[in-house]
Write a structure and sequence with these properties.
By secondary structure, this protein is mainly β. The protein has one helix and 16 strands. The protein has a six-stranded parallel beta sheet, with no helix packed on it. A four-stranded parallel beta sheet has the order 7-9-11-12. The termini are far apart.
Length: 206
């Protein structure tokens, strides 16, 4: 039975690995695949599918043994790794993500910021087990993105950051804003000196 599949620089448009129940390692690079479903591969430990420009859908909904997922430089818009309870590394940077759910109960085991790369220009909220812990541990994301216990219901309520606690302000493009010159009404990301983050609507003079 196959335990290792590697396909690189091949213009295949689809791949069915549902009949490979003992698969442990899957590597795909520079293919024309648009959808990848590995939910039937419960023994899969390493998934490398980065560099597939046309890949829009990745299904890892039943993969408790997955230790690492590398899916950067694809075209994913959503990613749910909540079933990947052994996950110790995730690189989903440089996609089109607007939704990312990492609440698998194992977040605290990923203690190196280098093992988590989440930068996506359109990703403003990331669901995690513990927002405060992720904020101080996982730095590889865009400034516009914040961690929440449930992005579907909005940013987790926290103590409001007072103006004298502010260390930085960003607009929704992730560009840093000079607090002393901030006069424009809008929606901003506020970061405190102790690492807390909140979104705030500015209705007048800051």
């Amino acid at each position: 039975m196959l335990t290792d599949i590697r396909i690189t620089w091949t213009p295949i448009e689809s791949l069915d690995v549902s009949k490979c129940p003992l698969l442990e390692h899957l590597q795909l690079f520079e293919t024309n695949i648009t959808t990848l479903d590995v939910s039937e591969n419960q023994t899969l430990q390493l998934l490398e599918c980065n560099g597939n420009d046309l890949l829009q859908v990745l299904n890892v909904s039943n993969n408790p043994d997955l230790i690492a997922i590398y899916c950067s430089y694809c075209s994913l818009e959503e990613l749910d790794v909540t079933s990947c309870t052994s996950l110790l590394g995730l690189d989903c940077s440089n996609n089109n993500l607007t939704s990312l759910d990492m609440r698998n109960g194992n977040n605290l085991q990923i203690t190196s910021t280098d093992n988590v790369r989440l930068s996506n220009n359109s990703l403003t909220c990331i669901s995690v087990d513990n927002p405060e812990w992720s904020e101080t541990t996982w730095a590889n994301k865009d400034n516009i993105a914040v961690y929440s216990s449930n992005c579907a219901t909005g940013i987790q309520e926290r103590q409001r950051i007072s103006n004298d606690e502010i260390s930085a302000v960003y607009d929704l493009r992730g560009a840093r804003v000079d607090v002393s010159e901030l006069r424009t009404k809008g929606f901003y990301l506020i970061r405190s000196k102790d690492g807390r983050t909140e979104k705030r609507v500015v209705s007048g003079e800051f």
